[in-house]
Amino acid sequence: MRTTLSEEQIREIVRNTVYETLGVPSPENQTSPLAKNAQTQDEPLKKPLERQRVAIGTDHGGVDLKSILKQDLISLGYEVIDVGTHTKDAVDYPDIAREVAELVATGQAWRGVVIDGAGIGSCMAANKVPGVRAAMCYDYATAVNSREHNNANVLTLGAGMLEVNLAQRILKTWLGTAFGGGRHTRRVDKITAIEKSYAKDGK
Question: Whole-model pTM?
Answer without folding.
Answer: 0.76
